[in-house]
């Protein structure tokens, strides 16, 4: 298949490119600069990968040109969305998340009629319901934040959660109102760890979830957002994206793509057992309590055919990758 992938410079996206190419697909990635495009081309030299510049996914018509190509696209993977807490206004997160999602769907609907499937990287943030948590989280559950809360909260993490909820909701609403040619699949991962393949010029530039693992390795877990006590390996999530475009049964389905719950202490213990140089250097407390709810990831296993790799493999590979970057 010829696949358009948005946000090609991101942590998750580069693994999606890798898996798409391994499955024999041709990829066109959107990136914000030639430098980021060249990095990808160098990483996947000799493979059917090209790039197109989309500078700001929040802008009206941002994807209108990118979706038009010969031969035409058959599938779209939309990963681009801001995942950081460095904002001056909640709209810094809400606009790219929501407009980016509606923008890609509108562009495909209007100008890329050959696209059969659009896969969107949503988040457990779009599922997690803090005011009324269920006993078991499934794909049926939705974050209950309102748009008013999204616009007025002074907590950037809450604004991020809202950005993912309203972006995913906008996608399902678009499907309902526009009845496009394509079907949709949304993937809802919690914290994503694993090897870093994307361009990272300095450890200060790490994506949010890799930075969290770096802090845990460095023994300063509390210096940043704690995040959900649940994880998925970026390679398993990338495979889920590929399976979601390949598998007819994924049509119009939402998937909770999460391996398991794990406390910060469990993660830290795995790191200490495998990297003894950090023993005794923990500079802040780590939480060791699991939440009073669990998750049901059986749909991702039964419908997508996903097999989750063990937590220890994910953590060890993540830390090795961070050490290779200078940690
Ligand atoms: P990254 O920050 O590594 O990647 C985000 C991507 O989105 C980058 O390519 C970035 O481009 C692009 N992007 C952000 N804002 C804009 C914009 N306004 N215009 C154009 N491009 C933009 O994050 P991840 O790879 O971790 O996240 C990928 C997806 O996965 C996101 O949708 C995120 O919400 C979701 N997710 C991530 C989780 C995690 O733990 N990592 C957990 C759950 C969901 P550039 O590099 O140029 O800034």
UniProtKB/TrEMBL annotation:
Keyword vocabulary terms for this entry: Oxidoreductase
Family membership noted in the UniProt record: Belongs to the NAD(P)-dependent epimerase/dehydratase family. Dihydroflavonol-4-reductase subfamily.
Name recorded for this polypeptide: Dihydroflavonol-4-reductase
UniProt xrefs under InterPro entries: Epimerase_deHydtase, NAD(P)-bd_dom_sf, NAD(P)_dehydrat-like
Entry keyword annotation includes DNA-binding: no
One annotated GO molecular function: oxidoreductase activity, acting on the CH-OH group of donors, NAD or NADP as acceptor
Organism of provenance: Cladophialophora yegresii CBS 114405
Ranges of residues in domain NAD-dependent epimerase/dehydratase: 3-254
Keyword Oxidoreductase found: yes
Signal peptide: none
């Amino acid at each position: 298949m010829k696949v358009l992938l948005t946000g090609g410079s991101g942590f998750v996206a580069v693994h999606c490119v890798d898996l798409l190419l391994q499955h024999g697909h041709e990829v066109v990635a959107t990136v914000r600069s030639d430098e980021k495009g060249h990095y990808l081309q160098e990483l996947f030299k000799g493979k059917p990968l090209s790039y197109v510049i989309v500078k700001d996914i929040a802008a009206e018509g941002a994807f209108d040109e990118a979706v038009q190509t010969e031969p035409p696209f058959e599938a779209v993977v939309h990963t681009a969305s801001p995942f950081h807490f460095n904002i001056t206004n909640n709209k810094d997160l809400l606009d790219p998340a929501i407009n980016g999602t509606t923008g890609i769907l509108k562009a495909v609907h209007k100008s890329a009629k050959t696209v059969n499937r659009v896969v969107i990287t949503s988040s457990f943030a779009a599922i997690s319901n803090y005011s009324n948590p269920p006993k078991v989280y499934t794909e049926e559950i939705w974050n209950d934040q309102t748009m008013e809360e999204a616009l007025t909260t002074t907590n950037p993490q809450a604004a991020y959660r809202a950005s993912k909820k309203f972006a995913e909701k906008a996608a399902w609403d678009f499907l309902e109102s526009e009845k496009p040619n394509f079907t949709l699949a949304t993937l809802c991962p919690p914290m994503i760890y694993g090897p870093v393949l994307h361009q990272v010029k300095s450890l200060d530039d790490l994506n949010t979830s890799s930075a969290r693992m770096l802090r845990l390795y460095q023994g300063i877990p509390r210096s940043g957002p704690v995040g959900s006590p649940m994880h998925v390996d970026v390679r398993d999530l990338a495979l889920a994206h590929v399976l979601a475009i390949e598998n007819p049964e994924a049509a119009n389905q939402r998937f909770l793509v999460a391996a398991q719950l794990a406390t910060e202490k469990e993660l830290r213990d795995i790191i200490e057992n495998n990297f003894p140089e950090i023993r005794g250097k923990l500079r802040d407390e780590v939480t060791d309590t699991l939440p009073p709810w669990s998750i049901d990831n059986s749909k991702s296993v039964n419908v997508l055919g996903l097999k989750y790799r063990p937590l220890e493999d994910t953590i060890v590979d993540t830390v090795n990758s961070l050490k290779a970057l200078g940690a």
